[in-house]
Amino acid sequence: MCQHSATEEKLYEKKFSLAEFFNAHWTNYVASPKTYITKEQFKAVNAIRLCRTSKLGKDVYSCKDCGNVVELYHSCKNRFCPNCSWTDTLKWADKVFKKLMNVPHRHVVMTLPHALNLLIPRNRDFFYGTLMTLASNLIKDYIIEKYRVFPGVITVLHTFGEKKGLHVHVHMIVSWGGIDQSGNTLKSIPVKDHVSYMDLKERFRLSYINAITHQYRTNQLNHDFSDEREFNQFISSLQEKQWIIHLEPPMDMPEQIIRYIGRYSKRACLSERKITNIEGEYISFKYKDYKEQDVDGKPVEKILRLHYRDFFPLLLQHVPLKNFRLVRYYGSYSTKTKLAEEFTAKPDQQDSGQQVIEFNDTEVCSECHGPMCYIESKAARGSVNWFIYRKIELIKHMKKNAA
């Protein structure tokens, strides 16, 4: 199992919560919102405010050795909730790691130019879905054509930048190698082999512009262009914009990939650990300014302070669309593909010597490290969970009487 050190967990301690800020100002904001609030945004905010509170209920565990009782409040499981995202990300990373091919992997990022930001909010399904599919197939097909191996690609959509403005891009975990044409051998790509960066960049730009043009020609694009001429001028301007592709050097298996997955997968738009202050109607959070670097060449960390009327719409524009899959799998990692066990087998991980924390902290007692056992689940009277638990108890009672 992919494990994480106590030192690493300590780095992610938080002092403030989004729920605290929403509880203080959401009612006032809803009375006079700055932008239209969608049904999914309402759901996300309500979930965040209820997450890990008594209103969602709790599970009770007891240590078999010392009798220590632990009560864990239920999480909301909303994809936008920062409370749920960290643990879910670690679990997902562990699951994905076991399925990765035993070859180096590469972090690839493809970004849409900000010139599209006026169209994207009105056509989110199209722009997001097209980016994920096109970018993934582009890098997959490039590897197949050049190296004659079938790679795997895991693609994660992010719609936000450091300051939480609209910045649509995809992070991809790309196997730098794959299954050869015979289907019987796993082959790695030479680490220092030249990648035609400009060719990839040109393919990306042309393919995406063609997709936008097709959407416009078939009257499926929601827009404000007055005529064909204005649209063509817009397309011409897109051809002159920077279409960014970033390729990091291939990473050896397995430790580097584990760290990458934990950092870039299904994390929340704003980590609560980046919130530096909540003061009255204002919230402050850290962000990295990539336009300014320190003496070590790293981006300078700065603080952004926003009033809730500016912060709420900025944050909520990134609430995932209903039923939209933010993580998708292509090539050898497609759900339709089943890899042979020998292709995914990995060497044993070295013990770092640090204390490790399992994903499920209900398995081991924090007091004596003895085994924990589940006792019961509780929920606030009248809540959805309360009715579910009552129904389960009734079924158990009926079965017991029948016996």
Descriptive notes:
- With 403 residues, the protein is of the alpha+beta class.
- The protein has one domain.
- It is built from eleven helices and 16 strands.
- The longest helix is centred in the middle third of the chain and has 24 residues, at 124-147.
- The relative contact order is 0.20.
SSE topology sketch:
Layout: E1 4-5, H1 6-11, H2 18-31, H3 39-50, E2 58-63, E3 69-73, H4 82-97, E4 105-111, H5 124-147, E5 149-150, E6 152-160, E7 166-175, E8 177-180, E9 186-188, H6 197-217, H7 228-240, E10 244-247, H8 255-264, E11 275-279, E12 282-293, E13 299-307, H9 308-316, E14 327-331, H10 341-344, E15 356-357, E16 372-378, H11 384-402
Helix pairs in contact: 2-3, 4-8, 5-6
Concise overview:
By secondary structure, the chain is an alpha+beta fold.
Low-pLDDT windows of residues = 1-12, 349-360
Q: Over all CA atoms, what is the radius of gyration?
A: 24 Å
Distinct helical segment count: 11
Shape: globular
In whole angstroms, how far apart are the ends?
41 Å
Number of domains: 1
Largest β sheet strand count, sense and barrel closure: 5 strands, antiparallel
Global mean pLDDT: 85
Order of SSEs: EHHHEEHEHEEEEEHHEHEEEHEHEEH
| Share in β-strands | 15-25%
Give the strand order of the largest sheet, numbering strands 1, 2, ... along the chain: 10-4-7-6-14
Proportion in helices? 25-40%
| Structural class by SSE content | alpha+beta
Task: Report the count of strand segments.
Answer: 16
